[in-house]
Structures are given as structure tokens and as C-alpha cells.
């Protein structure tokens, strides 16, 4: 099914996983198969341009600009783009300006020209906030210039003001208890007062208004006006009525549950989860969000990992000692959440070379008790992150594989070893992927095709892990591999300097910052 859509007049632009379609008057016009998952789709305003130019936000940190069914060019952005929006709602004066927000919380503006893209500005995520889920442009301050409205997956709503023609400046924020799934500016509640309306994951719709809630009376005394008092009384009455309905329904359920003829049904609930690598501290962020309040989250893992404290997390954690040999468990941890907690965030530290599965058992505060399980793969090279450029001046170690394996088979091995690799086999006869180690800042180049695979890295441990894992995967499928390794003449000295440089960082990361548990 189609996950993302954009409508411009009689043109309909759809994105579903790796596939993009363009329809005009319900007739199929263009088709494109992307190299990685499509997170959002947008079209530049046709009334300002002479042609239709779609823009795809893809998971591999790339904006792909199309012309018909062909790729015009692509542009790398600082993170996986999650959402696109036209600047000022119309693409700016030229109609070519596109805003993007990434899943790791970065924002940027690019100009999509007919020849090449132009980066106008970008804003990092120094405060380590959630990813961008929605954006809008609206003049909420009433100064004649549209502000940038941002909604994040950690419930933070932000307002950026354009005080100059260059970068926007952060002005205001508001914290919601759930991820902001949509945001829009406009006049909703009262004529003459603009509002910011948001929707959240569980379905709540809320608004922030510019209408003053207090009036000045005397020197410093503030008094609520009569109209606002009436609104508050109306809301309180509505809440009391809802509470009465909830109590009545609970009593009905208790009575029906005691009946011998009643049939119990397992309640269903949705989980909004994210498991992503943080480049800044080389840790994984696990976010679990439920439409109902969370009671307990149980974590189980069959490889050594460590859990790091998160300031936003108010849950009480308890660890269970476990022996790794009989049951394969290295971690058993239980998080008991506070009342009305619907979102929990955890940080996880992993070790490259140790790979397995992390399972999260989520139990909400509903009756009868039910549980859902989410599984997350800890990959052999779990601390590597996709990039699009390498430093070719570094001395490299090489690993060469040759054998009777298909392009799809060797690609499945790479998917098993490394994160952020698309599961779909790439189009063409060969493919190259580039990675950066978020902990040691080393790099890895993977190039492979049918019957051949070439790997280069300035870290000998990366090559060793790849060699072991790929050999095991080939052995499972009874495929004979011809493996050869090589290294630069200056590798020993370079590797020594590299690891001496990062020894203090590694000690602080694994020993001082946390008490690492091996079972």
C-alpha cells in the first residue's frame, strides 16, 4: 500500500517503500524504483516552474530529484530525511526551495534547480532532541514573516523565526507528552487570534493560541477575563462527564468479566517504535510509544549489551542475573513505568563482533493483560553508519571474497552484517556502500557483485569481523569461498596510532560511564 502521497492540482504523487508513482487525472504517468526506502515525497509547485519536478526523501540520507521516470540528480543530507515541505508553503519566490527534516533531529533548506541543488542553510540537533515528524510555515507572531513550525517524535513543538534572510533562529518551544504527528498554523478557535494545531500519536488534537489568557488590572495584578473563565468551566464540565463515562464502562466490564457466559477478547494496541544509532555517542536509541499507558517493558538480549540512563526516562529498572550458557540470555531487565507514561526511551551500548537479537516485551495498563513483542537485530558491525564519501588517503586493509554465490546472496550477507542497508537487492550488476564507525571514526568500503566481493577498511578488527561472519553465512548455505586478505605496508604504525588515540575514550565509554554486564 502507499505510505506517502502529495497532491498538486490534478497530479497525484505516491510513494510506497521503494516505489514511486505519478498519476495525472487517474492515469499512470511515471514510475521510479528507488535504491532505498522512500520516507516522503514532494513536488515543486508547477505554477511557478515550467515542468513537474518530484523530490523523494530516501532512507540512505539522500534527496532524489526526478524528471519524469528518470533520476535528474541526488543530494546528500546530514541524516535520513523523514519529512519534506515547501518553504513558506509555496517553495519561496522561485518555487524551488524545499525544507527537510531528518529522523535524527536536523533541519535544512535546499534549492532544487534544474542543474544541481544548492544548500541554503541547515540546523543541527545540539540539544539531542527527537526526530522531525512534521513541518509547516505560518506567520504565528503576526510580523508579516512566516515562522517555521516543527513537530518532533519526543513531543517537542518548536518555532523558528527568520530574523535575517539567512538561518532561522529558535524562538519558542512547547512540550507535549506524545510524539507530534502533524502540525498546522491557522485561525481555528476565535476570529482574530491565530493558533498552532497539532495531533499526536494516540489521536489527541491540541492547539496553542495567541489569544491572551490574562488581563492587566492595576500595577502587577493579573486577572482572568470572564470569557476565559467560561471556557475553563466548560472544559471542566466536559472532563467530568468523560470521567463518569469511563467509570460506567469500567463497571460494565467488571460485571461482564464475572459472567460465566462472557467471552474475553484480547485488546489490541499499536506500538510506535524506533531503534536507531546515535552518531554522537555511538549508542542505540530505543523508543517505545503506546496509545495507552505503559505498565511494564521487559528487555531480553542474547548478546552482551549495556543499558545507559536517559534523563527523560522516569521508569524504575531492575536487572535479573542470568547465566548465558543454558538459555542464551546476557540481559534481562524490567522497566516499571510511572502512571500515565505512554512513551519510554532507552539507550543501549553494543560491542562490534557480538551479534544477536534484542527483544522488548511491552505490557500496557489495559485489562485483560496483554503483551506485544518487538525484535531488534544487533548486527556484527552495529556501530557503523552509512555515509557517501571516504578519505582515500588512509591506508586500507582489504578482504576479497570469490565463490559461486549470486548477487542476491552476497547482498543478504551485507544486510545481515551492517545496519542501514536496504533489504531489497540493488538494481544493476554491482553496488558499493560506504560506512563510518561512529565510535572510532574508521571507515569501510563494500563493493560486490555476483561471485565477487571486495571490502576495504582502515580498521583490522572490521575486516576480521567481516571475514568470520561472511564465512559462517556461506558455510550455512554450503557455498565454498576463496578468501584473501591484504594490508597496507604502513598499517601497523597507523593502527597503533589510531588505537592509542582512542584508548582513553574507550575506557571512559565502557568502564567509567557504565557498569558493563556480561551475564
UniProtKB/TrEMBL annotation:
For the BBS7 GAE domain, which residue ranges apply? 267-376
All copies of domain BBS7 beta-propeller, residue ranges: 6-210
Q: Which InterPro entries does the record cross-reference, listed alphabetically? A: BBS7_GAE_dom (IPR056334), BBS7_pf_dom (IPR056333), Beta-prop_BBS7 (IPR056332)
Query: What stretch or stretches form a coiled coil here?
Result: 225-259
A Pfam family matched in the record? BBS7_GAE
Q: List, alphabetically, the GO terms of the cellular component aspect.
A: axoneme; BBSome; ciliary basal body; membrane; neuron projection
Q: By what name is this protein known? A: Bardet-Biedl syndrome 7
* Organism of this sequence: Micrurus surinamensis (Surinam coral snake)
Q: According to the entry, what is the taxonomic lineage of the organism?
A: Eukaryota, Metazoa, Chordata, Craniata, Vertebrata
